[in-house]
Specification:
The complex is a heterodimer of chains A (894) and B (234).
Chain A (H helix, E strand, L loop, with lengths): L14 H12 L5 E6 L6 H14 L4 E5 L6 H8 L2 E2 L3 E5 L2 E5 L2 H7 L3 E4 L15 H10 L3 E7 L7 H8 L9 H6 L2 E4 L4 H9 L10 H7 L2 H30 L10 E6 L4 H16 L2 E8 L1 H4 L3 H16 L3 E6 L4 H14 L4 E5 L5 H7 L2 H8 L4 E5 L20 H21 L5 H19 L1 H19 L12 H48 L4 H16 L3 E7 L2 E7 L7 H13 L3 E2 L11 E7 L2 E8 L11 H68 L5 H32 L7 E4 L1 H12 L7 E5 L7 E4 H17 L6 E9 L2 E8 L31 H11 L3 E6 L5 E8 L3
Parallel strand pairs in A: 1-7, 1-8, 2-3, 2-6, 6-7, 9-10, 9-12, 10-11, 12-13, 20-22
Antiparallel strand pairs in A: 4-5, 14-15, 14-18, 16-17, 17-18, 19-21, 22-23, 23-25, 24-25
Chain B lengths: L5 E6 L3 H13 L2 E6 L2 H11 L3 E5 L7 H11 L4 E5 L4 H10 L3 E4 L4 H16 L6 E4 L2 E4 L4 E4 L2 E2 L4 H12 L4 E3 H8 L8 H15 L9 E4 L3 E4 L3 H4 L1
Parallel strand pairs in B: 1-2, 1-3, 3-4, 4-5
Antiparallel strand pairs in B: 6-7, 7-8, 8-9, 10-12, 11-12
The chains are: A alpha/beta (894), B alpha/beta (234).
Chain lengths: 894, 234
C-alpha cells in the first residue's frame, strides 16, 4: 500500500468557541426566547402564551410582564390564568401611558416573564428608551424572558424590508441583541391564511397605519418577509450547530447548508471548472473550497504548469472560495482517498468534478478519478459537470509523449539485434525456450537502463525477431506451435512490468535523492547556525542559506521590545509599513500569512512565524522568485519550515545567551558596587577613628596624658580630619562628574600659577619631595577652569608623591604645539604595570603593589573626568629607568 | 594681635558651628554674639555693634550675600564669610558686595584668627602710611619705590598699581573683579588675561621662586592675596 501523507488545515476544537459556549452555558444571566414572526397576526403572542402555560404546568414560576392582547378573545383567555404584573402608568403630556413596570418585575423576580413586542419604544420618562433595554435589565437580574418580535424590526434587515415592502420600519432592534437570544421560535403561517385572518378582522392594525398596511399586506411582500424570517432562523441554527460541533470536534458532514469542493489540476479545464463551481455555489448559496492535489509526478511539473495551478487557485479565491493544497501518492486511488478524507473532515456536501475527457481505454488502464471519487463518496454528492467544448489536449498531456530520448530507442533496437545475432551464432544448439531467455535478458536490460518506451520496443521487436527467425516455420510470422504465444505475451508483459517498476523505482530514487539533498541543506544550515556566536551571524547564515536554497528574497524580522523590526533583508528588498503589519499579525497569531496563504494574501511576501517551544521569536518573510510568480511547492514549504525552525531555535539560543550575559554582568556590577560601597564606608570611617579616639581620650584622660602624648593625639586627629575632608571632596567631585553636573568656568589661565597653586594646596605633603617645574617664560595662557584644573594637578602630584620614595624627584613640564598645551608630570616611583596603564583612570582603581598606600583611588578618575570635560586627553606611560609620566593635553583655546 | 573685649557676631544656622566659634573666640578674649539667620543678624548688628562679623553664606531666610549688601549700606564693620569649597561664585559675589575675606569650611582656628586679625587691622590701620613692608618686600608709595632685599625693582605702572592695591590690603583677598576695576577701570572687569599676565610678570619680578610664590598667593577661582609676615600669620 502506498503511503499517503497529507497536510490538511484541520478543524480542531476552537478554544475561543469553547470558551464562548462554556460562558453561555454557565453564566447566570437570564435566557431570552424570541417568538419570531414575519408579520402582525401570525400568532406570536398566542404561541408565547401557550408556551408560558406549558412552563407553568411544569411548575415553573411564570408571570406576564406586559401583554398586548388587542382584545382578541383567544389571547385574553390565555392571559387570564396567568399572573399579570400591574403596568406602570407613565405620565406624558397630560396622558397616562401604560408601560411595563420593570422594577415590579425585578421585585417579583419570577423564573420566566412574558414581555410582548420586543421592539416597542417606551414613553419618554421611562427608565430606558426601548423595551429591549428593559429586557436586558431583567435578563441581567437572572430572570428568563419570553418575547415576541417581527422580522422587519431587525436592524440589519431594515433596508431590505424597506425595499421589499415599501414600508420603512422605525422601531428597530440591533441584531446583537437577537444573536444573544438563547432560543428563537419561528411562528409561521402561510401568507394566504394570514390574508384570510386579516379579512376576518382577527389581525390588529393600528389605525394610523391603515393605508400603509394595505401596501404591506400584499402577498408578495408577505412571502418575501416570510422567507427572510425563515432564512434568518436557519442561519442562526447553522451557526449554533457549527458552534456545537466545534465544541465537541464532531467531524462532519452535517448536511445543513451546502459546502462544495472542487479539485483542480494544471489542465486549463480547471479554470472552467472553477467558474462552474462558483455558479453552482451561488445557486446553492454555499461555501466552496478549491483543492489541488500534489503528487510525486506534479513535483516535477514544468514552470508554467506550476504557474497555471497558482493562478487557478488565486482565481478561485478571487471568486470567493478558500483554497488548499494537499499531497498524495502517485496513483488515482491515493488521490481519491486524500480528496475524500479532506471532504469528510471539512464537511463537504458536494464535490464538483469535471467530466472525464480521456478515452475509455485509458481510463481502464490508469483509472478514473471521477469513478474513484464516486465509489468512495459515501454520503457526499458528486457533481460531474461539463466544462464546455471538448478541449484539445495541450501537447504535454499526451500519453504518447516520448519520455526517453531517441538514442535509447536506438539502443534497444541494437540490443535486440545483438540478441538475434547471438541466437544465430549459437544456432541450433539451444532450444528456442532457452533462446527466449536471451531476449528476456535484453528486455530486462532495456527496461532497467533505457526506460519504458524502449523496453516496450525491445519486447515487441524481440518477439517479432524471435518468431521470425527462430520459430518454425522459420522466416515467417506464422506460429505453428501456439504455446509460443504465451511466450510472446510473457515477454511483452515482463518488459512492461519491469519497465514500470523501474520507472517507479527511479522516481522514488529521485524523490529520495531530493529528500537527501534537502537533508543535506538542512544539515549545512544547522551546522552553520551552531557555529554562529551571536544573533547577527545567525541571521546572516539564515539569510544566506535561504537565498541559496530557495532563490528568493528574504527578510527576517525580530521583536525589539515587542515591536517587530526588520533585522536583515535581501538587497533591494524594502518592507513597507503594511508589510510589517502583516508580519506583526503573524508574530501575534503564530500562523503563516501573506502571499499565497489564506490570510492577508495581498501582501508582497509570505510570512512564516519563527516558532520554538516557548513561543514566537520572530517572523520570516519570503518573497517571490525573480522571474515568476510561483508559490513554493509543498515540499519546498516543508523544507522552509524546517529551515525556519532551525533558525528560530538558533535565535532563541542566542537571545538567551545574551540575556544570561546581561544577567551575569548585572550580577558582577552589583557585586562591584557592594565592594565599592564597603570600601568607601571603610575609608570614610577610618579617619573618624583617629578623630573620635583623640577627642575621647583627651576628654576622659586629659590630666593623665602628658604634653607630647596630647600633641601627638591632636596632630594625628588633625591630619585625619584633613584626609577625611579631601575624601569627601573627591566623592563629591566624582558624583558631579558622573552626573554630568560639571560646569566649566573657562578663563585664560597661567599654567605656572596653576602648578604653584597646586603645590601650595598640597602643603606639608609636598615637603618631602623635590618638585622641579619647567615652564617656558612666555607660555601662553590656556583656557581652563582654574580651580578644577588645580584639583587635577593636586591629584596627580599626590599620586607622584604617594608612589615614589621620599626625596625622589618629581618634575612638571609644559609645552605648547599645534594649538594644544601639554603638561607632563614625571616621577621616579614604582611605575605602573603595563596592563594597568589604561585602567588606572577607572573609578576606585588602585594598583595593587605598594603596601600601605591609602586613598580610595578616585583621584585619577576625577582628573580624567575634568580633563575630558575640557575636551582634553590624559594618559599614563611608564618611563625608561623606572617611574611614571602622566601627560595632559588641553586645547589652547582662542 | 588680640584685644580683650572686642565684639564678634557669629551668624550661622548650624548650632554646632556656632558652639565651636563661641568657644574658640571666647578663648581668644572676644565677646561673642550669635544669630542664626539673616534677619536676626541685621538686628544683632544694630543692637550689639560688633567689631567684626563672621557670616555664613548658607542662611535659611536671606542669603549671606544679600545680608552683606544690606550691611554695607550703612556699616563698615569687617565681614568674614564662611562658605563651602565649591561655591566660588558665591564667594566672589560676597566679596564684591563688600565682604572683607572668606574662609572655606572646614577651617582651622588658626586660619580663622589670622583672617580676623587682618580684617580688623584694616580699620585700625587706616592712616596714610606711605611705607608697606612684607618680609623682604618694601613699598614706598610716596616715592613710588619698590625694593626687594633693599634692591630696587622696576615695575610697569600697571604692575605697580596692582602691587600697591595688594599692599594696601595686605593679608586680605582681592577678587579679580576688584583688581581689574581698581587698576584698569570698570570697563575692564572681565579682562582676565590682562590680570593673569600682569600677575605672572609681577611674580617673576618679586618672588624668589616664581613657581612657588610666597608673597603673591593665588586664591583659586576667587582672586589674589598678598601674604603677610609669616610671624604674624601663625
Amino acid at each position: 500500500m502506498i503511503e499517503t501523507e497529507y497536510n490538511i488545515y484541520m478543524q480542531r476544537p476552537d478554544p475561543d468557541e469553547l470558551l464562548k459556549n462554556l460562558h453561555a452555558e454557565t453564566h447566570s444571566r437570564g435566557k431570552l426566547k424570541i417568538f419570531l414572526g414575519y408579520a402582525a397576526g401570525v400568532g406570536k403572542t398566542y404561541a408565547m402564551l401557550e408556551a408560558a402555560h406549558q412552563r407553568k404546568a411544569q411548575g415553573i414560576d411564570t408571570v406576564v410582564g406586559y401583554i398586548e392582547t388587542h382584545k382578541r378573545k383567544e389571547t385574553e383567555k390565555l392571559v387570564e390564568s396567568l399572573e399579570v404584573l400591574p403596568r406602570k402608568q407613565v405620565e406624558y403630556r397630560g396622558t397616562n401611558l401604560p408601560e411595563m413596570d420593570v422594577d415590579g418585575v425585578l421585585a417579583r423576580h419570577p423564573k420566566i416573564v412574558l414581555v410582548d413586542e420586543f421592539a416597542h419604544t417606551n414613553a419618554p420618562g421611562s427608565r430606558h428608551p426601548k423595551r429591549y433595554q428593559d429586557v436586558q435589565e431583567i435578563l441581567d437580574a437572572g430572570i428568563d424572558v419570553y418575547t415576541t418580535l417581527n422580522i422587519q424590526h431587525l436592524e440589519s434587515l431594515n433596508d431590505v424590508v424597506a425595499q421589499v415592502t415599501g414600508v420603512i420600519v422605525k422601531e428597530t432592534v440591533p441584531d446583537s441583541v437577537i444573536d444573544e437570544a438563547a432560543e428563537i421560535e419561528v411562528i409561521d403561517l402561510p401568507p394566504d391564511e394570514l390574508l384570510v385572518r386579516l379579512n376576518e378582522g382577527k389581525v390588529y392594525i393600528p389605525e394610523q397605519a391603515s393605508r400603509a398596511i394595505d401596501k404591506f399586506f400584499r402577498k408578495g411582500n408577505l412571502t418575501a418577509l416570510r422567507e427572510m424570517s425563515l432564512r434568518r432562523a436557519a442561519e442562526r441554527v447553522d451557526d449554533q450547530m457549527r458552534s456545537y460541533m466545534q465544541t465537541r470536534a464532531i467531524p462532519g458532514p452535517w448536511a445543513a447548508s451546502e459546502r462544495l469542493l472542487v479539485c483542480i489540476s494544471p489542465s486549463p479545464l480547471s479554470e472552467r471548472l472553477v467558474r462552474t463551481a462558483r455558479r453552482l455555489a451561488d445557486e446553492l448559496n454555499a461555501e466552496w473550497i478549491t483543492l489541488f492535489v500534489e503528487t510525486p509526478q506534479s513535483a516535477s511539473m514544468s514552470e508554467d504548469k506550476r504557474e497555471r495551478v497558482a493562478n487557478i487557485l488565486q482565481l478561485s479565491e478571487d471568486l470567493g472560495a478558500r483554497s488548499y493544497t494537499v499531497t498524495a501518492g502517485g496513483t488515482i486511488e491515493s488521490i481519491a482517498q486524500v480528496v475524500m478524507d479532506f471532504a469528510h473532515k471539512n464537511n463537504i456536501t458536494k464535490i464538483v468534478a469535471g467530466k472525464p475527457l480521456r478515452p475509455r481505454w485509458q481510463e481502464i488502464l490508469r483509472g478514473s478519478l471521477v469513478d474513484s471519487l464516486i465509489h468512495k463518496s459515501r454520503d457526499i454528492d458528486v457533481y460531474v459537470v461539463t466544462s464546455g467544448d471538448a478541449p484539445s489536449f495541450p501537447k504535454d498531456e499526451s500519453p504518447w509523449k516520448l519520455h526517453s530520448s531517441i538514442s535509447r530507442y536506438v539502443w534497444s533496437i541494437l540490443l535486440v539485434a545483438m540478441a538475434t545475432v547471438f541466437g544465430f551464432i549459437i544456432g541450433g544448439r539451444i532450444s528456442p525456450t532457452n533462446l527466449v531467455m536471451v531476449y528476456l535478458l535484453v528486455v530486462v536490460i532495456a527496461a532497467v537502463y533505457l526506460g519504458r518506451g524502449p523496453a516496450i520496443i525491445a519486447s515487441l521487436l524481440g518477439v517479432l525477431a524471435f518468431d521470425f527467425l527462430f520459430i518454425v516455420p522459420y522466416f515467417s510470422f506464422a506460429v505453428s506451435d501456439t504455446q509460443y504465444i504465451i511466450t510472446f505475451i510473457a515477454l511483452f508483459l515482463v518488459g512492461l512490468v519491469i519497465s514500470q517498476l523501474t520507472a517507479r523505482a527511479s522516481e522514488q530514487a529521485q524523490a529520495a535523492r531530493q529528500r537527501e539533498a534537502e537533508t543535506a541543506e538542512l544539515y549545512d544550515l544547522s551546522r552553520d547556525l551552531a557555529s554562529s556566536a551571536d544573533i547577527e551571524s545567525i541571521l546572516n547564515q539564515l539569510k544566506k542559506h535561504l537565498e541559496q536554497t530557495f532563490e528568493r528574497t528574504i527578510a527576517i524580522l525580530l521583536p525589539n521590545q515587542n515591536v517587530l523590526e526588520v533585522k536583515i533583508s535581501s538587497d533591494d528588498l524594502k518592507l513597507s509599513d503594511e508589510e510589517i503589519a502583516v508580519a506583526d499579525w503573524v508574530y501575534r497569531h503564530a500562523e503563516p500569512a501573506g502571499r499565497h496563504t489564506n490570510t492577508l494574501p495581498a501582501a508582497q511576501l509570505r510570512y512564516l512565524p519563527l516558532k520554538t517551544a516557548s513561543g514566537v521569536v520572530g517572523v520570516l518573510g519570503v518573497g517571490k522568485p525573480a522571474t515568476s510568480n510561483i508559490d513554493l511547492s509543498p515540499a519546498q514549504r516543508r523544507l522552509m519550515e524546517s529551515f525556519a525552525n532551525q533558525g528560530a531555535q538558533a535565535i532563541e539560543r542566542a537571545t538567551l545567551e545574551e540575556q544570561t550575559q546581561k544577567i551575569s554582568l548585572m550580577q558582577s556590577a552589583e557585586k562591584l558596587q557592594n565592594a565599592l560601597l564597603n570600601s568607601i564606608s571603610h575609608d570614610l570611617r577610618t579617619p573618624l577613628v583617629a578623630i573620635t579616639g583623640a577627642l575621647t581620650a583627651l576628654d576622659e584622660n586629659y590630666i593623665g596624658l602628658d604634653e607630647s602624648a596630647r600633641n601627638s593625639l591632636i596632630d594625628n586627629a588633625r591630619g585625619e580630619a584633613d584626609r577625611l575632608n579631601r575624601l569627601v571632596g573627591n566623592l563629591l567631585n566624582m558624583t558631579r562628574i558622573e552626573s554630568g553636573a560639571i560646569k566649566l568656568n573657562l578663563e585664560p589661565s597661567d599654567v605656572q600659577d596653576l602648578i604653584g597653586t597646586a603645590i601650595e594646596q598640597l602643603g606639608a605633603r609636598a615637603s618631602k619631595h623635590q618638585i622641579n617645574i619647567h615652564i617656558p617664560a612666555d607660555f601662553p595662557l590656556v583656557q581652563m577652569d582654574f580651580s578644577l584644573m588645580v584639583q587635577v594637578i593636586v591629584n596627580l602630584l599626590e599620586n607622584a608623591i604617594k608612589y615614589s620614595a621620599e626625596n625622589s624627584l618629581i618634575e612638571v613640564s609644559a609645552s605648547a604645539a599645534d594649538s594644544k598645551a601639554r603638561l607632563k608630570i614625571f616621577d621616579r616611583g614604582v611605575g605602573i604595570p603595563t596592563d594597568d596603564l589604561n585602567r588606572i583612570f577607572d573609578k576606585f582603581y588602585r594598583v595593587q603593589r605598594p603596601e600601605n598606600v591609602s586613598g580610595t583611588g578616585l583621584g585619577l578618575s576625577i582628573s580624567k573626568g575634568i580633563v575630558e570635560a575640557h575636551g582634553g586627553i590624559i594618559r599614563a606611560l611608564n618611563r625608561e629607568n623606572g617611574g611614571t609620566v602622566i601627560e595632559i593635553e588641553l586645547p589652547l583655546g582662542q | 594681635m588680640t584685644q580683650t573685649n572686642q565684639r564678634v557676631l557669629v551668624v550661622d544656622d548650624e548650632t554646632p558651628i556656632r558652639r565651636y566659634l563661641r568657644a574658640a573666640l571666647t578663648a581668644q578674649g572676644f565677646t561673642v554674639y550669635e544669630a542664626s539667620n539673616g534677619e536676626e543678624a541685621l538686628n544683632a548688628v544694630l543692637a550689639n555693634r560688633p567689631d567684626i562679623i563672621i557670616l555664613d553664606l548658607g542662611l535659611p531666610d536671606i542669603d549671606g550675600i544679600e545680608v552683606t549688601r544690606r550691611l554695607r549700606e550703612w556699616s563698615q564693620t569687617p565681614i568674614i564669610i564662611l562658605s563651602v569649597r565649591e561655591a566660588e561664585n558665591d564667594k566672589i559675589a560676597a566679596l564684591d558686595a563688600g565682604a572683607d575675606d572668606y574662609l572655606t569650611k572646614p577651617f582651622g582656628t588658626g586660619e580663622l584668627m589670622a583672617r580676623m586679625r587682618v580684617a580688623m587691622r584694616r580699620i585700625t590701620n587706616k592712616s596714610d602710611e606711605p611705607v608697606f613692608q612684607v618680609n623682604d618686600l618694601k613699598m614706598d608709595i610716596s616715592r613710588r619705590l619698590v625694593t626687594l632685599n633693599e634692591k630696587e625693582i622696576s615695575l610697569t605702572p600697571t604692575e605697580y598699581d596692582i602691587l600697591r592695591l595688594l599692599m594696601q590690603n595686605v593679608g586680605k583677598v582681592l577678587t579679580h573683579h576688584q583688581l581689574l576695576r581698581q587698576v584698569w577701570g570698570n570697563a575692564y572687569e572681565n579682562e582676565m588675561h590682562l590680570l593673569r599676565v600682569n600677575i605672572s610678570n609681577l611674580r617673576r619680578k618679586i618672588e624668589p621662586d616664581a613657581t612657588r610664590p610666597t608673597y603673591l598667593i593665588t586664591e583659586a577661582g576667587v582672586g589674589y592675596r598678598l601674604r603677610m609676615n609669616d610671624a604674624n600669620e601663625k
